């Protein structure tokens, strides 16, 4: 797309905002990692971006997603403690092992379904995240859901 | 915040290069004529912007014609900067830099390649460049090719003069052309 500005412009104008958002979301210590991941993801998708209209919003969306990824990874990371507290676990998996089925979907459908229902992103942002058009994102989501319904039926 | 942000940004440029995402790296460097813009693709130096050219416009043009993945990454241009410094000090006569010719096509590119072979301290005519590029009658087109040279200094279009020795034109302005020819000993001080 010829109207996309040089990527450096995005950095010059929005790097400070992105860093501030990430410091708020994941804390100072981990913000730099998420910052790198955010701008690398943006750089990867940038040439295919169809709408250069709201580049700040696009970057902030990616930053939020990287913060979510970070929190998920952190949740799985074991934390060493002196004594393991005995706590009753009350965090049942959703019925029918639905996320296992989501996990078995083809990559694009899986990503679309996860971004829509786990991260609550609207279609336009899913498209930005996947580096495709909103129509293509909608289609991947639809195909994923159709497949899940068929498997549950 | 500022210092740590700058650290993050230089780290980002390195990682982008490692992952093959740094399509156009650029830097500015000082010269006796004012700041120069240097831009390179993974293939080599792709653009040299002279002091009288608007660097922002050149970057927008690179984003449109090469790739919008344009990042400031001075380390990628260290060698070009070093050789240009030596050239301006009169200590380097032949550039040894990989060049990416993608911004010029066909006849213009053939003219520029012929210009790249003109030795330091010598001059040629537009007519001769047209002939070397395969069409002796296309003198005006050879002049246009010089005027649109994306790699001035390194591809030394300042060494091309009118038949009979008149200076002709220069993208960086005639005084700069005269100074370069003086530096190379073609014109007297």
What brief labels describe this structure?
heterodimer, A: 153 residues, mainly alpha, Rna Polymerase Sigma Factor, Chain: A, Arc Repressor Mutant, subunit A, 2 domains, 7 helices, flat, B: 189 residues, alpha/beta, Double Stranded RNA Binding Domain, four-stranded mixed sheet, two-stranded parallel sheet, 40% helix, globular
CATH architecture of the largest domain in chain A: Orthogonal Bundle
CATH topology of the largest domain in chain B: Double Stranded RNA Binding Domain
Strand content bin of chain B: 5-15%
Helix content of chain A: 55-70%
> What profile does the largest beta sheet of chain B have?
4 strands, mixed
Regions with little confidence, pLDDT below 50 for 5+ residues of chain B: none
Distance between the termini of chain A: 43 Å
Write down the secondary-structure element order of chain A.
HHHHHHH
């Amino acid at each position: 797309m010829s109207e996309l500005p040089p990527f450096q412009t995005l950095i010059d104008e929005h790097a400070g905002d992105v860093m501030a958002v990430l410091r708020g979301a994941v804390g100072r210590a981990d913000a730099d990692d998420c910052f790198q991941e955010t701008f690398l993801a943006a750089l990867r998708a940038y040439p295919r971006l169809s709408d250069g209209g709201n580049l700040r919003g696009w970057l902030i969306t990616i930053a939020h997603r990287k913060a979510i990824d970070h929190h998920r990874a952190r949740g799985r990371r074991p934390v060493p403690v002196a004594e393991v507290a005995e706590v009753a676990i009350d965090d049942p998996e959703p019925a029918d092992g639905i996320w296992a089925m989501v996990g078995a979907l083809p990559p694009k459908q899986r990503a679309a379904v996860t971004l829509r229902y786990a991260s609550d992103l609207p279609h336009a942002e899913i498209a930005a995240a996947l580096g495709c058009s909103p129509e293509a994102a909608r289609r991947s989501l639809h195909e994923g859901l159709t497949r899940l319904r068929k498997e549950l039926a | 915040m500022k210092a740590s942000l700058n650290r993050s940004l230089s780290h980002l440029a390195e990682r982008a290069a490692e992952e093959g995402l740094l399509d156009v790296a650029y830097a500015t460097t000082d010269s006796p004529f004012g700041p120069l813009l240097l831009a390179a693709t993974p293939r080599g130096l792709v653009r040299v912007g002279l002091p009288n050219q608007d660097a922002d416009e050149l970057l927008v043009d690179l984003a449109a014609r090469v790739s919008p993945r344009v990042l400031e990454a001075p380390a990628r241009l260290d060698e070009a900067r070093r050789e240009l410094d030596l050239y301006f000090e009169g200590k380097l006569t032949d550039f040894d830099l990989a060049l990416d010719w993608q911004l010029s096509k066909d006849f213009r590119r053939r003219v520029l390649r012929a210009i790249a072979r003109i030795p330091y301290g010598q001059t040629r005519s537009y007519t001769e460049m047209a002939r070397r590029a395969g069409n002796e009658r296309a003198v005006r087109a050879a002049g246009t090719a010089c005027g649109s040279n994306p790699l001035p200094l390194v591809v030394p279009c300042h060494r091309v003069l009118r038949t009979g020795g008149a200076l002709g034109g220069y993208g960086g302005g005639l005084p700069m052309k005269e100074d370069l020819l003086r530096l190379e000993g073609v014109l007297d001080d």
